[in-house]
């Protein structure tokens, strides 16, 4: 597709999305522009073949869709730099933003965009880093100015990144930490399972490979079988067997309560960031 894709902010999440997009042969790195205050930190983008600049306005002027990937606390600075570095005399098109700023509502984004003297539309997303390998999930919610074809464009862009699901903004606020923060929680689970195997004498590289595949396979079992995970767990737990003894150890360690608390803590922090 002959569209130009921009990223204001070239950090880990922007990189993950770009890598996921490039898994689709319909797009090339030459269609991507990325900006950041220090281009030396964007070398990995240049190595991918993307266009790099330190001017946010250049990305805004050249691209059909612009992903906002800065920290929430520097949104105002990023928008200000867009104005300062936007080429003068160019056409004032309707700018299409896709914001990945955690906790920042569509209403707050439009307040920030009021400094522009041209129309803007925005889709708010919550992506995750596994999008870079085509196994991620991205929630999105559009404002009332976004056209259906713009939602379709976003879904096409992210088609090779994994699951892309439209939700209400209320659900975006309350549920985004599961897909967004969940990978970090699962990495700890993988590491802990591997450590357990290493303790029993398994070489570490082998243990990490096994633990990673256990999570991949278990997730696929839930998705493909449509069975409740509790039911699938029961199918593995033979009476008086090894698995039920391990499950008992997990329950004694309050693994369920700990994971529930992790999601709650991350959600509360997201709300806090949105209020600053």
Structure characterization notes:
- 53% of the residues lie in helices and 14% in strands.
- It has helices at residues 12-22, 43-48, 56-62, 75-85, 106-113, 148-157, 169-175, 177-199, 204-225, 229-236, 242-252, 255-275, and strands at 5-8, 32-35, 51-53, 65-68, 95-99, 120-126, 136-142, 162-166.
- It has an eight-stranded mixed beta sheet with strand order 3-2-1-4-5-6-7-8, with helices on both faces.
- The protein is elongated, with a radius of gyration of 21 Å.
- Helix 8 packs across helix 9 (204-225) and helix 8 (177-199) packs antiparallel against helix 12 (255-275).
- With 276 residues, it is α/β, with parallel strands linked by helices.
- The protein starts with a strand and ends with a helix.
Short descriptors:
elongated; eight-stranded mixed sheet; 276 residues; alpha/beta; single chain
State the gist of this model:
The chain has 276 residues and is of the alpha/beta class.
Specify the overall morphology. Answer: elongated
Series of secondary-structure elements, N-terminal to C-terminal? EHEHEHEHEHEEHEHHHHHH
The span between the termini is 38 Å
Structural class: alpha/beta
Count every helix, treating DSSP H or I runs of 4 or more residues as helices: 12
Please outline the major beta sheet.
8 strands, mixed
Summarize the amount of helix as a percent range: 40-55%
What do the pLDDT scores average to?
A: 93
> Which regions contain 5 or more consecutive residues with pLDDT less than 50?
none
The rounded Rg comes to 21 Å
Spatial arrangement of strands, main beta sheet: 3-2-1-4-5-6-7-8
Number of strands: 8
What percent of residues are in strands? Answer: 5-15%
């Amino acid at each position: 597709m002959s569209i130009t894709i921009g990223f204001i902010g070239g950090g880990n999440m922007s990189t993950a999305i770009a890598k996921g997009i490039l898994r689709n042969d319909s797009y090339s790195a030459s269609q991507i522009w990325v900006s950041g205050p220090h281009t030396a930190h964007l070398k990995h983008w240049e190595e991918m073949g993307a266009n790099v600049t330190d001017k946010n306005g250049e990305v805004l002027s050249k691209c059909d869709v612009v992903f906002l990937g800065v920290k929430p606390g520097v949104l105002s600075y990023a928008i200000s730099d867009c104005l300062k570095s936007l080429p003068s005399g160019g056409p004032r098109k309707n700018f299409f933003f896709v914001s990945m700023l955690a906790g920042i509502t569509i209403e707050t984004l439009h307040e920030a965009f009021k400094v522009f003297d041209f129309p803007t539309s925005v889709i708010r997303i919550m992506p995750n880093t596994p999008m870079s390998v085509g196994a991620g999930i991205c929630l999105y919610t559009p404002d009332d100015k976004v056209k259906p074809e713009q939602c379709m464009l976003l879904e096409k862009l992210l088609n090779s990144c994994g699951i892309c699901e439209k939700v209400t903004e209320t659900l975006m606020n309350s549920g985004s930490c599961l897909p967004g923060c969940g990978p970090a929680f699962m990495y700890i689970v993988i590491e802990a399972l591997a450590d357990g195997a290493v303790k029993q004498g398994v070489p570490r590289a082998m243990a990490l490979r096994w633990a990673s595949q256990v999570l991949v396979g278990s997730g696929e079992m839930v998705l493909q079988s449509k069975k409740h995970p509790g039911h699938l767990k029961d199918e593995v737990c033979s009476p008086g067997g090894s698995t039920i003894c391990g499950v008992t150890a997990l329950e004694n360690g309050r693994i369920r309560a700990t994971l529930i608390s992790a999601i709650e803590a991350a959600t509360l922090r997201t709300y806090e960031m949105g209020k600053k």
